[in-house]
Design brief:
The complex is a heterodimer of chains A (429) and B (333). By secondary structure, chain A is mainly α. Chain A contains 17 helices and no strands. In chain A, α2 runs parallel beside α11. The longest helix of chain A has 35 residues. Chain B is mainly alpha-helical and 333 residues long. Chain B has a single domain, classed as Orthogonal Bundle (ABC transporter involved in vitamin B12 uptake, BtuC). Chain B has a two-stranded antiparallel ribbon. In chain B, a hairpin with an 8-residue loop joins β1 and β2. Chain B is globular and about 70 Å long. Classes of the chains: A mainly alpha (429), B mainly alpha (333). At the A-B interface, α8, α15 and α17 of A face α4, α5, α10 and α13 of B.
Amino acid sequence: MIARRSLLMFAGLFVLFTIIGLFLGAANISLLLVQSFAYALIALGLNIQWGYGGLFNFGIMGMLMLGGAAVTFISYPVNAQFWGSEGPLMLGKALMAFLAGFLLVWAARHADRIGIKGRWKTFVTIIAWIVAYIVYRSQIDPAAAYIETAGGGWVGGLGLHPVLGWLFGGVLAAGVAYVVGKICLGLRTDYLAIATIGISEIIRALLKNMDWLTRGTLTVSPISWPTPIPQDLQAQGVSISDSFIYARLGFLGLVIVILAVAFFLVQRAYGGPWGRMMRAIRDNHIAAGSMGKNVTRRQLEIFVLGSVLMGIGGAMLVSFQQIYDPGAYQPINHTFLIWVMVIVGGAGNNWGAVFGALLIYITWMISDPLSQWLFNNVSNWSTDMGWGAIPEIQSRASQMRVFVLGVVITIALRYAPRGLIPEVVKREA
Amino acid sequence: MNELIFFFNNVVVAGVVLGSIYAVGAIGVTLIFGILRFAHFAHGDMMTMGAFIAFLLAMAATALGITTPIVPTGFLVLPVAMILAAFIALGLDKGFYAPLRKRGARPVTMLIASIGVTLIIQGAIRLFFGSGTYSFFQTEQKQLIRIPVPLEGVTRTINFTQPQLLMVLCTAVAVLALHFFLTRSRLGKAMRAMADNADLAQVSGINTKLVVRVTWIIAGSLAAMAGTMLALDVNLKPDLAFNIVLPIFAAAIVGGLGQSYGAIAGGFLIGFAETLAIFNWSVLLRPIAGALPFELPATLAVVPTEYKLTVAFVILVVVLLWRPTGIFKGASS
C-alpha cells in the first residue's frame, strides 16, 4: 500500500514541478531542479545519519561549507603569484608547526607510559595544548598576513576537474566528520545536537575568516563546471536563452547520475545485514551493544558516511552557483532546511528523503514569489480601502519562506510525525 | 595603572554585562530542560520577540509622553513586556508543545518542534519589522558614566553606560527573586521536586500541569528580559538572539542542564571567557615590555576578535568531554 501511495506522491510532485515550470519558464525550473537534486543528495546523507542511525547531526552547514571549500580549492585556476612567492614555504612551516604541536599533545596524552599519572598528566596535557597553540599561531599568523598582502592574496586553486573537487569535498568532509565524531559521538541526543551546531559554527568562523585560504567574505568566482557552461554552448551557435537550459540540463544529468548511484548503494546497504544492525543500534543501543555490536564504532561509521554525501552535495551546489561565499551560509538555509526535508519526507526511508528534499526545496523557493503576489494583492486591496499600501513588499516576501518552513515542519510533526513516505519496517512472521 | 583601568573597562565591565545577559537567558533554557526534558531551541527567538515587544511598548510610551529623565524608556516598559512575553510563552506551549507532549512524543521530537517554533517566530518578526536595525535610543541619549579614579597619574576613567548599570541591577534582582521563589515558596519547591523526579513529584500530589505553566511563565519573562537587555546594549534586529542562543546553551550545559544556579555560573563563565579571550594583552604588558624576553606585538589576543563566539563552543566541547553533566551535576533525560 505504501508503495502505491509513494508512487502517487511522486506523480503529484512531478505534476507540481511541471506546473511551476510552466509559470517560471524552462530556464528557471531547470535551475531549481539542479539545486533540488543536489539537496536530495544532502538529505540522503542526513537520512543515513538520522534515519538509519538515529544520530542528531545539526552541523550539516559545516559539511556543506567544507565541500564548497574543497571544490573551490581543486577546480579554481592556479594562482601563479602565490606559488612564486614565499607563501608556500611559510605555509609549509606552519604545517610543520601544526604537526609538531599535534605530536606534543599526543605525547602528553600518553604520558602515563613514562610514569606521569593522574593530576600531573592533566597538567602536562594542558601545558602541551597551550604550547602547541602558541607554536602554531606563531607560524600561521605571519604566513596568513604575508599571503594576504604580498603573496598573491590567497592560495588559489589547483586547476583540476570539478568532479575531482566533488570527490575531494566528500573526502574532506569525511576526515572532519571522523574527528568530530570521535569527539562528540559519546554524547546523548540533545547534547550531540548542540555540540554539532557548535562545531559547524566553528567551521564557519574559520572558513569565513581564513582569507588566505578561502578569500573569506571577498568570495571566489567563477568556479568551473564539470559540464559545458552556457557561454560554451553560445560559442557553438546555440541561442542565448536555449544555452542556459541545455547547460543546466547537462549539469542536472550529472547530478542525477551521482544521486542515483548513491541512492542505489544506500538502499542496498539498508536492506542488508549492515542496515539491520544500524536499525538495531538506533532503536535500542543498549540491547545492540549487549549482542556484541560495537555501538560507538558503528555510529562513527555512519556519521562519516552521511557526511561524505553532505560534502559532495555541498561541493555540487557551489560549483553550480559558480561562487563560493562563506558569508552566505546560514543555519536556517543549510541545516534546518535539510532537517525539514528529511522529517517531512520520512526519516529512515530513502524514497521519503528524496521526496521531501524535492518538495521542500520547491516550496522554499516558490514561497517567495507566491507571498509577493499575495502581498501585492493585499496591498492593492488595502489601498482601495484607504488604509495605505504595505511598505517594502519585496524584502518582506523573501522573509516569508522562513515562516512557511516553520509552519510546514509544525504541521508535519503534528499530523504526519513519521513523514509522508514513512519507513517500512519488515517483520518476519 | 592606566592599563589596569583599560583592562577593567574592557574585561570586567564587558564580561559582567555579557555574563548577565547569558545568565538570564540560560536560566530559562535550564528550567525548561529540567521540567520538560528537552532542549528548547526557540529560546533565542523568544528573546528577540521580547525585545521587539519592549521596543514597541517603548515607542508607544514615548509617543504618549510617558518618559522619565532618569531611566531609559526601555527599562520602564520592561515589566509590561515581560508579562506579555510570559503570556505568549504560555500560548506557544499550548499551541505547539502541549499537543506533542500529550501524544507522548520523545524529547527529540520536541527539540525538532522547537526548531519549527524558531522558524515561525523569526519569520513573523521579519515579516513585520523587515530586516533592518532598530535602536532604543533614537529619541533619548545613552548616558555614559565616567568614574575618575582618585590615584596619582591616572588619566583614564572607569567607563560604562547607564543601561549597562541598570542591566546588572536587574539581573541581580531577577536572580534573587528566583532564588527566593525556588527555595521559599511552595510552588518553587514543587518545581525543584519535579526537576529531580517528575514521576515521584506527580504521585506525591504535585500539580505538574501548574508547574509546567509556571515554568513557561518564568522562562518567557526572563527571555524577554534578556532580549531587551541585549537590545539595549547593542542594537535591535530580527536575528538579534539567533547567534546568541548557542552561547546560552553552552552556558546552560557548562552549568549542568537543569541547574538554575549552574546556569548563572555558566553564563558569567562564558561571558568572561569571551571577553578575556579577545582582550589585547599587549596593552597590559606594554609597561614591562623591556623586561620581556620577546618583542611585544601590537595585538596579542588569545583569539582574534572574529572568533569571539567560537570561544563559547570550545569551552562547551571541552566541558562536554571532561565532565558531560556540567560543572554542577546536571539532570538527564
